[in-house]
Amino acid sequence: TIDITGTAVDSEAKLNTSAVGFGDVQQDQTQTRSLEITNAGSSPLEITGSSISGEDAGAFSISGLRTRVLTPEVTETFHVEVDATDENRGSLNSQLTVTTNGSDVTSQLGTTVVAPDIVVDSTVNDEMFGTTRLGTTSTATVEIKNAGNAKLNLTDVAIKGPDANAFSIVKSPD
Questions:
Q1: What is the DSSP string of 34-92?
Q2: CA neighbours closer than 13 Å in the CB half-sphere of residue 94
Q3: CB-side exposure of 62: number of CA atoms within 13 Å?
Q4: Alpha-carbon distance 40 to 36, whole Å?
């Protein structure tokens, strides 16, 4: 009999993170994160492709990940971008998959799209002022709210219309 011994060799793909959080991204903005794929095995690893899947896959993209062979212990850096242009406020989630000649590796992608949303709760009309005698002053309140999920910067409050000069702003919001 002949005893034969050997050591198995295999490639092993590893991503540096299993989840990529982009945090809050302003509506109509983009944000990029860097990722690394490493061949943690003992034989060459062939990167054969990549994809993004899930309900919000269209908001995410991959750049810089080449189809190539990584020798053992070699790392390739690439980028994932989220584009919140034309996205509604709220959560976006997808999954990145890198396919290899060994096992595929995945990372969850997530962000929250944020944007302010100004809401003016009332329209000032003559009923709000009631009867105002000549030489006296009446006031009416217009409530301004932010119904969005990001800070609203109110930079200008103005009165417009044919009789605008008959009115004044008593107190602007802080």
A1: EEEEEE-SSS-EEEEEEEEESTTGGGEEEES----EE-TT-EEEEEEEEE-TTPPSEEE
A2: 20
A3: 22
A4: 12
Per-residue confidence (pLDDT) for residue 50, from 0 to 100: 97
Give strand pairing partners of 78.
35
Q: Which band of pLDDT confidence, cut at 50, 70 and 90, is reported for residue 153?
A: confident
pLDDT tens string 85-129: 999 999 999 999 999 998 899 999 999 999 999 888 767 777 777
Residues paired with residue 20 on neighbouring β-strands, in sequence order = 109
Nearest of 77, 84, 36, 78 to residue 60 by alpha carbon: 84
Q: Contact 52/109 with Cβ under 8 angstroms?
A: yes
Of residues 1, 33, 30, the one with CA closest to residue 15: 33
What predicted TM-score, i.e. pTM, was given to this entire model?
Answer: 0.77
- Per the CB < 8 A criterion, the answer to whether 83 and 59 are in contact is yes
Question: Using an 8 Å Cβ cutoff, are 45 and 32 in contact?
Answer: no
Task: Inform me whether the pLDDT recorded for 155 exceeds 90.
Answer: no
Tokens (6 digits) for 132: 């105002």
